[in-house]
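Dear colleague,

Thank you for sharing your sequence with our group. We've completed the structure prediction you requested, and as agreed, I am returning the results in plain text so they can be pasted directly into your records. Please verify that the sequence below matches your submission; if there's any discrepancy, let me know and we will rerun it promptly.
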Amino acid sequence: MFISSTTVKDIEALHKKISNNVKKYRSEKNMSQMELSLLIGFKNSAFIGACENNANNKHFNIEQLLKISNALEIDIKKFFD
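Please find the predicted structure tokens below.
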């Protein structure tokens, strides 16, 4: 039986790392939150903004990260570095 030692703080730190990296790579491409939102299928930038700022316990799921990596033309692994 596998017992995970992953804590809530570990998960929160991972979400923060991913959010910071999405914001970093989006900014490097000079892309607005609105532009990215539209490219991945959202009609406004509220969700991207909330995720990038870790607001209201919002975070990106794996499908959204794949779409974002395609939109930014980067490897999805970069979000986890």
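Summary note from our side: Residues 8-28 form the longest helix (21 residues).

Kind regards,
the structure core
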